[in-house]
């Protein structure tokens, strides 16, 4: 999809139309067209995301947040509960703690295998296997375990199981692995319910069989999640009112708008147009699935892209190391704190610059709920707009040398006191309004969109940045990362997201 849009953008310019079967989409490639669409007002006309209300039986119409098109009902309620769960201050501290623990576990797995050069008893047959030294395979399992811990509050087992399998050790299927596997299958099935009508799904023989298997998996997934939810409800009921509860997303979902919710009064005024009530089990299932899907591939692939770009830009790596050394000095084992992350301005700039050059999500879809004007045309209600962020992040009229990796374009912005009144990642949404040539405002606002825009902005953006900063810090303050083939191009695959397919690597202790 990404390459097709790039080709069409170069041929037809900043606005053109494409057809998905019988459905037309207007592709917008200029930042100025985003100004209305990215408004954060609840009165925005551009909250709806999908042009069909297909797939209700699959949870794609009024369930969760990402796929929810019921903007005046369940979407608004789910968004409120989801956002509040992620904004609890203690969750940031725990997320950092869990990331540190998980990186150490991944290091232990790499030592067992011999990915870290210089370790004794290296298993040469494993090291010579490209699958074993392929970074995306590790990062996907890392993010699976991470999001399971954040969402459910229980340690996942993807990294450990994968390592045991490499050594021929049979693993007993764990609840976390079965849920993650089922969630992956669920995500693969979404396109069948988005692209095919109900008639095709129910009556075309080959597709009907595939859809039936995806629906069976959906029932299994909802059933397993419901079991976990019911166990947690019993645990909460058995916990005295004066004792602290678990600090994870699931617990926050369950206690939302109940007497156990200490933040309830804080949000009554903010969400006065939303009915305050507890969440039902099925609603919690939909939100948990959104957390699992949104918290895995995006972070895993972006980290792989960061590793690739740092390997090919040693001057940027040197600057990163200088920043790390200024904070941690020679102590490569000191525990990282949230304050440390706040001070890692250049590290954050690298993350954003790589996301600009190689976005994991380079396009998005919005619909207008009412007739409206964009780029001089009046569009009827329910016009589909495909926002091609990948066509905006490298514009010469917005960025100096747009194809060059230059973290300073973000670093200089972040260290300017006039525009940096917070800690650098508290409000990542502000970065959608930057561009090196943006002094005059609306002409190139929204030239960088890392986590989406408007009311549909990713609610987990702060946790994602904590996870990425911690990963970069723990790996690069301790190790030199070497790519097996420095001449190999970055191997990606682009569908709805751009994934890193292969990045062969080894580590050695930093000199």
UniProtKB/TrEMBL annotation:
GO molecular function, one term: iron ion binding
Cofactor(s) essential for the protein: heme
Keyword set, alphabetical order: Heme, Iron, Metal-binding, Monooxygenase, Oxidoreductase
InterPro entries given in the database record: Cyt_P450, Cyt_P450_CS, Cyt_P450_E_grp-I, Cyt_P450_sf
Renumbered residue ranges of the record's region Disordered: 421-440
Highest taxon in the source lineage: Eukaryota
A UniProt-annotated Pfam family: p450
Keyword Iron assigned: yes
Positions that bind heme: 458
Family under the similarity heading: Belongs to the cytochrome P450 family.
Protein name: 20226_t:CDS:1
């Amino acid at each position: 999809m990404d390459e097709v849009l790039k080709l069409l953008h170069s041929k037809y310019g900043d606005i053109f139309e494409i057809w998905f079967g019988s459905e037309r989409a207007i592709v917008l490639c200029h930042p100025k067209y985003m100004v209305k669409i990215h408004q954060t007002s609840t009165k925005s006309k551009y909250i709806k995301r999908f042009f069909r209300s297909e797939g209700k039986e699959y949870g794609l119409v009024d369930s969760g947040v990402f796929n929810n098109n019921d903007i005046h009902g369940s979407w608004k309620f789910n968004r409120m509960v989801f956002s509040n769960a992620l904004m609890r201050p203690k969750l940031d501290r725990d997320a950092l703690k869990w990331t540190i623990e998980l990186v150490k576990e991944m290091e232990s797995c790499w030592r067992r295998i011999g990915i870290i050069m210089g370790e004794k008893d290296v298993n040469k047959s494993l090291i010579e296997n490209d699958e074993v030294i392929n970074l995306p395979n590790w990062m996907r399992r890392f993010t699976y375990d991470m999001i399971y811990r954040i969402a459910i509050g229980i340690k996942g087992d993807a990294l450990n199981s994968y390592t045991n399998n490499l050594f021929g050790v049979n693993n007993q299927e764990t609840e976390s692995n079965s849920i993650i596997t089922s969630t992956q299958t669920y995500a693969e099935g979404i396109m069948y319910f988005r692209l095919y009508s109900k008639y095709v799904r129910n009556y075309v023989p080959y597709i009907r069989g595939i859809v039936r298997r995806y629906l069976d998996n959906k029932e299994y997934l909802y059933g397993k999640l419901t079991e976990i939810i019911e166990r947690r409800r019993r645990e909460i009921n058995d916990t005295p009112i004066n004792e602290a509860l678990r600090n994870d997303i699931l617990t926050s979902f369950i206690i939302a708008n109940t007497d156990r919710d200490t933040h309830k009064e804080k949000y009554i005024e903010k969400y006065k147009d939303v009915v305050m009530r507890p969440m039902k089990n099925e609603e919690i299932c939909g939100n948990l699935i959104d957390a699992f899907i949104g918290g895995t591939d995006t972070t895993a692939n972006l980290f792989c892209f960061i590793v690739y770009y740092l390997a090919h830009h040693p001057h940027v790596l040197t600057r990163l190391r200088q920043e790390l050394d200024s904070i941690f000095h020679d102590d490569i084992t000191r525990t990282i704190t949230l304050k440390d992350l706040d001070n890692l301005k250049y590290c954050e700039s690298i993350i954003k610059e790589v996301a600009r050059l190689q976005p994991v999500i380079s396009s998005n879809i919005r619909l207008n709920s009412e007739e409206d004007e964009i780029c001089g045309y009046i569009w009827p209600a329910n016009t589909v707009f495909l926002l091609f962020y990948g066509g905006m992040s490298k514009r010469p009229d917005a960025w100096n040398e747009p194809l060059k990796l230059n973290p300073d374009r973000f670093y200089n912005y972040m260290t300017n006191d006039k525009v940096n009144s917070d800690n650098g990642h508290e409000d990542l949404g502000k970065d959608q309004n930057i561009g090196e040539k943006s002094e005059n405002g609306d002409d190139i606002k929204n030239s960088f969109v890392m986590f989406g825009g408007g009311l549909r902005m990713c609610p987990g953006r702060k946790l994602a940045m904590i996870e990425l900063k911690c990963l970069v810090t723990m790996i690069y303050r301790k190790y030199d990362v070497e790519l097996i083939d420095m001449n190999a191009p970055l191997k990606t695959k682009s569908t709805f997201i751009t994934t890193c397919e292969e990045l062969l690597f080894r580590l050695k202790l930093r000199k």
